[in-house]
């Protein structure tokens, strides 16, 4: 537990613990493309641990974080850079991205940027992913789920079944039933406009 009743942990993009993805999909490190483009079994490649960018059209990736709190948890927060993965060049092809914690969907979000839309100073990733996404902050409290400070869902901490000594499972994906199932980009170290891994924060009463 850190000062102020806060515990923080970060997980590199390639250290997902479970996945089920559909093409177009792929992984990239700062050294280049990992494995083969548009082959879902590339997500099993041991070199995935170096991934700083991943994308897929349908399905999910899941990460596990440690639950560490010395008191009652008052807030659970995730920070990550996400973007759409719609093929082509039109920003009019959005994608609805869903986020779940311990199998409870806390909300969904449709980014403003799509995979091949060249905006901002970082360009040149070519067909292997977009330049950047948007840094998002998902926070779950006793009163619901908030995305960048705006309440988007009634799902609250009590719905997540958080338990000491049990992992907190974060799932990022695109549901088959999504209104705009265009895919997702997830950005980590060395990619995007925010050089960070997926960050989790636990707030607790002091």
Helix/strand layout:
Blueprint: E1 6-11, E2 18-29, E3 32-34, E4 53-65, E5 73-84, E6 97-101, E7 104-109, E8 134-141, E9 144-147, E10 150-153, E11 168-174, E12 184-187, E13 198-204
Antiparallel strand pairs: 1-13, 2-3, 2-4, 4-11, 4-12, 5-8, 5-12, 5-13, 6-7, 6-11, 8-9, 9-10
Descriptive report:
- The chain is globular.
- Helix content is 0%, strand content 44%.
- It has a single domain (6-204), classed as Galactose-binding domain-like (Jelly Rolls).
- It contains no helices and 13 strands.
- The chain has strands at 6-11, 18-29, 32-34, 53-65, 73-84, 97-101, 104-109, 134-141, 144-147, 150-153, 168-174, 184-187, 198-204.
- Strands 1, 2, 3, 4, 5, 6, 7, 8, 9, 10, 11, 12 and 13 form a 13-stranded antiparallel β-sheet that branches.
- Strand 8 and strand 9 (144-147) form a beta hairpin.
- The protein is mostly beta strands and 206 residues long.
What is this structure, in a nutshell?
It is built from no helices and 13 strands. Mean pLDDT is 86; it is low at 115-129. By secondary structure, the chain is mostly beta strands.
Supply the key terms.
44% strand; Jelly Rolls; 206 residues; globular; 13 strands; mainly beta
Tell me the distance between the termini.
10 Å
- What general outline do the C-alpha atoms trace? globular
The CATH topology is given as Jelly Rolls
Query: How many helix segments?
Result: 0
Uncertain spans, ≥5 residues at pLDDT below 50?
Answer: 115-129
Briefly, what CATH class?
A: Mainly Beta
How many beta-strand elements? 13
CA-atom Rg in angstroms: 17 Å
What's the mean pLDDT score?
Answer: 86
The helix content is under 10%
Proper CATH architecture: Sandwich
Total of domains? 1
Main sheet: strands, sense, barrel: 13 strands, antiparallel
Within CATH, the superfamily carries the name: Galactose-binding domain-like
> What share of the residues does DSSP label as strand, in percent?
35-45%
State the secondary-structure class: mainly beta
* Helix-strand pattern: EEEEEEEEEEEEE
């Amino acid at each position: 537990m850190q000062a102020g009743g806060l515990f923080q942990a970060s997980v590199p993009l390639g250290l997902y613990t479970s996945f089920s993805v559909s093409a177009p999909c792929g992984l990239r490190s700062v050294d280049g493309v990992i494995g083969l483009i548009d082959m879902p079994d590339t997500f099993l490649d041991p070199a995935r641990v170096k991934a700083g960018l991943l994308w897929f059209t349908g399905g999910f990736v899941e990460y596990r974080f440690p639950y560490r709190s010395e008191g009652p948890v008052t807030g659970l927060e995730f920070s990550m850079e996400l973007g759409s993965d719609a093929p082509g060049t039109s920003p009019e092809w959005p994608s609805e991205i869903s986020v779940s914690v311990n199998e409870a969907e806390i909300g969904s979000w449709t980014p403003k940027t799509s995979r091949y839309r060249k905006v901002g100073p970082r360009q040149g990733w070519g067909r292997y992913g977009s330049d950047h996404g948007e840094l998002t902050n998902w926070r779950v409290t006793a009163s619901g789920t908030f995305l960048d400070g705006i309440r988007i869902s009634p799902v609250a901490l009590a719905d997540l079944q958080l338990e000491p000594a049990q992992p907190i499972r974060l799932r990022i994906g695109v549901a088959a039933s999504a209104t705009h199932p265009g895919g997702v980009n997830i950005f980590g170290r060395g990619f995007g406009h925010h050089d960070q891994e997926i960050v989790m924060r636990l707030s607790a009463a002091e």
